[in-house]
Structures are given as C-alpha cells and as structure tokens.
UniProtKB/TrEMBL annotation:
Origin superkingdom: Archaea
PANTHER family reported for this sequence: DNA ALKYLATION REPAIR PROTEIN (PTHR41291)
Protein species of origin: Candidatus Methanofastidiosum methylothiophilum
Pfam families assigned: DNA_alkylation (PF08713)
Protein name: DNA alkylation repair enzyme
Length: 233
C-alpha cells in the first residue's frame, strides 16, 4: 500500500521522544535536525512502508536525521546508481546516518566494492568514513568475495590510519578488525597490517593498531574463526 509522505512525517513526529534525543547526543550524534525516533521504531515503520524508490528519494530530500535513515531502509539497493550514491554520501553529517546507510543499503549494492575504494580517499570526514565502513560491511556480509579483494584494502587502511579525526580513525579500526575476523588467512594479514601501522609515529595509528591487535589475537576471536572455518585451521 502506498503511503503519502505527509502521513510518514506525521508518524515520525508521533514516534519522537525527547529522551531519545538526549541519548543520541550522548553518543556524539548530530541532533540539530533530529526528531528523536529510535532505530527499532524506524525499522518497524520501514516494514510498514515496504521497498519504495520514490518515497525513499522524497524522505532523503527532507534533511531530517530520521528521514534519511528511514530512506536507507526502504530504498532498493538494486536501483542504486553511482549518481544517487554520490548525492547521498555528500549529505552525511553524522556517523550514524553514515553507518546506517552503508549497512542498510550501500553495502548491498553491486557498486559497494568500488565505492569503498573511491570514498576512503576523499577528504570529507563522513565520506571517508563511509569508504572504511563499507569495507567492514563487506567483510561481514559479502560471503562470496575472495580474500584477494580484501588484500587490496590493507594498503589503504595503512594509509588511512594517520587520520586523527575520530569518526575516520574509528572506521579504519572497524574495517581492519572486521576483515581480520573473516577467516584465518585474513586474520594473519590483518595482524601483519596492524603491526606495521603500530610503527607509524601517529597517535591515531597507535590507537588503531593496539585496539585491533588486542581483538584479532584474542582467544575468543580465534575460536570464532575456527568454528566458522574448521577445515582451514
């Protein structure tokens, strides 16, 4: 059933909660244009709406925090063009809009792999973050992708490790850890990359490497990898 955009906006206002805004602010989320609707509530609304390219474009254009996240939930990744992805990524102004859009939508696009390379070389903080977030998303969800493709990420992760901006360095760290948890081969490569990063004279690089090595070398993660790939180890 098609929903009028005005109904969706009214629904979002009815779901808004000032306490949610307070919680968002505590997590460093830009709330200047936020209504205060939780992600679980947005997911329920997205199921009610269903996949809809037209409504997704209309919601994104409204510039509310929640309408952008909701748009990423109802847009069909098969309809995504490079132009649309570029238009949307330029509008990122908060880490959660970036991460939700990459997880809900961009990571499912056939363009995700190429965009991850393009965006992590850009200067804009949230565009660059999106490139590394896509690396992490693909490492978790793109089961068919070959190890060799992920090998190509390590030089870019190394290069990005000196970016001192918090939302970039956390995404670099996230990408390195997720790739290293994919299987034992990538775990070893990720550890090697982290050790090289640790040699860099940079606070950001030191933090990224130390945090990644702690997780990638942990018994818990190694056991998880072994359970996923028992024949490889």
């Amino acid at each position: 059933m098609y929903m009028e955009i005005q109904y969706i906006i009214e629904k979002l206002y009815s779901l808004s909660d000032p306490k949610s805004l307070e919680g968002m602010a505590r997590f460093g989320i830009n709330t200047s244009e936020a209504l205060g609707v939780s992600i679980p509530k947005l997911r329920l609304l997205s199921k009610e709406i269903g996949k809809n390219h037209k409504i997704a474009l209309e919601l994104w254009a409204l510039h509310f925090h929640e309408t952008k996240i909701l748009a990423s939930m109802i847009e069909d990744p098969k309809t995504l063009s490079s132009e649309q992805m570029e238009n949307w990524v330029r509008d990122f102004n908060s880490w959660d809009v970036c991460d939700q859009t990459c997880n809900n939508l961009f990571g499912k696009s056939k363009l995700a792999f190429s965009k991850s390379f393009e965006w992590c070389k850009r200067d804009e903080e949230f565009v660059k973050r999106a490139g590394f977030v896509l690396m992490a998303v693909l490492a978790v969800h793109d089961k068919a992708r070959k190890d060799e493709d992920f090998f190509n990420y390590f030089p870019i992760i190394y290069e990005g490790s000196t970016d001192e901006r918090i939302y970039v360095k956390k995404a670099v760290n996230w990408a390195l850890r997720q790739i290293g948890k994919r299987n034992i081969i990538l775990n070893k490569k990720a550890i090697e990359c982290a050790m090289e990063i640790h040699k860099i004279n940079s606070k950001s690089a030191k933090w990224i490497a130390t945090d990644a090595l702690k997780e990638l070398r942990s018994t818990k993660i190694l056991d998880q990898i072994k359970n996923k790939n028992p024949k490889v180890i």
